Amino acid sequence: MTIAAPFVSRVMEIEKDWIDYNGHLNMAYYNVLFDRCMDDALEGIGLGASYARDRRLTIYTAEIHVCYVQELHLGDKVAVTFQLLDHDEKRLRAYQEIRHVDGWLAATCESLSLHVDMAGPKVAPFPPDIAQKVAAAQAAHAALPAPERAGRSIGISRKPKPGA
Q1: Is residue 1 part of a domain?
Q2: Is residue 158 part of a domain?
Q3: How is residue 25 annotated by DSSP?
């Protein structure tokens, strides 16, 4: 098994039904683009649809942090990257970017995903064969530079009040 470092999705085009009343891509559809890329990347690690169907084990998203950098519009074409930043016996931490085919950054996403036994459903360790594939993917991605935008938190910066 080899996974590209980073994994890069197929080129996807922004669809008419995804455009909101402001004339740009609605925030929900950035997540659709991230999700499509993640599905393809996870398929390459052995965690795709057949894994869920055949083994009754799957991946659930626990947390995401999306940063909207530049607007996308109808007809824009994009590719999405996936970089596995970290993992343990039950979780994956990933970083993704949506880039216009011209190269500019449209959005970033950092996510935490859980490995789930669908019989519970409950969070469960990766089976040994999958744990090995996840470790191999992280090793491949470890050679990539640490994403500058990973690890961000949400907050409001305030200037100190005069005299404070």
Answers
A1: no
A2: no
A3: B
